[in-house]
Amino acid sequence: MNIYSSVDGSNIDKIIVLFNSVLLNADINKKDGLRFYLLVDKLPNILPYIPQELKYILEIKELVLDDRWKRILADFNENFYKKSKWCKSDMNFARFLFFLHFPEVERVIYLDWDMIVLADIFELENQYNNLNNMIVAECGKQTGFTNIFTPEFMFNSNYNILHAKSFYFRRKYHKSSVIFDYLNISSKIYDINGFNAGFYIISNKHFEEQNLLNLLEKLIKVQIKFKCFNFGTQVVMNLMHIVNRTFIEKKWNHLPNIENLYDLKIIHWNGTKKPWNNNSENCKIWYDYCLKVYPELKDKFFIKNRATIKKTTMNVKKTEVVKNGLITNQQNLLKFLQAKSK
User: Which domains, from first to last, does the chain contain?
Assistant: First the structure.
């Protein structure tokens, strides 16, 4: 079973933590069948520590772009990240070039750098062996339509839409129908679920180079004309292979927003608040897995957490009053003040 990711060379340690979480939770009788692949923009002079068990089954390569891909990447970055510069990264785009760099691989699981895998990855063995389908995780109630377009574009109306007598005609008169015809994309996109592109399983034929280049060039032209798409590679992934896409349960790509995070298969800290920069309780799992690889960082995280505790304590003191011991909340404070007034 092959696993891959892509990241800039200064953040390889985040991927090592992620890949090691896969190893730690994999079926002990099957983990010899795991292989890991990583694309980076530039290899650092000194690689971060890599656990011995992972070291011999991990291959790292630098991203190489020919002139066509350099042009496509520049145009894509220019037009798809105007309102979301925080997530613009050449290495996010590098996901599309995996099979060009590792042509010996036929099937692979993609994982974002801001994930931890809590489940046995071999639970996905049946889906992994389904070579014809792209495998993705369910993502709430979003459809492909609502996932790729900006709200301004989705709710843009014209005379025909306002007076349409059926949902069919509202779709027909929406500008999206012109776009989907131009892209030669099935109308099923209106109804099929959308997904978050931080996790998927694909075969090399799903990223066939010329088809991918054609799609990207068309998407860039559409974006220049209509400025309709949401940001980034999420759009591209949601417009690929919609008729041969299999959904698995949401637990395989889930935000850390439920009470018991250990009920999840993969936790995904997508967005701007990454776990290594965040002291929230829901980041503790990431810290735990990080320290399994880099225990020397314990003091660093302790100092961060201690600073948070100190700040919280100072805020509490502003509302606390001491009388015969510590009064710990506003209700007790109210009782104390009422007693003082008698």
Answer: 2-148+195-208+230-293 (3.90.550.10), 296-341 (no CATH)
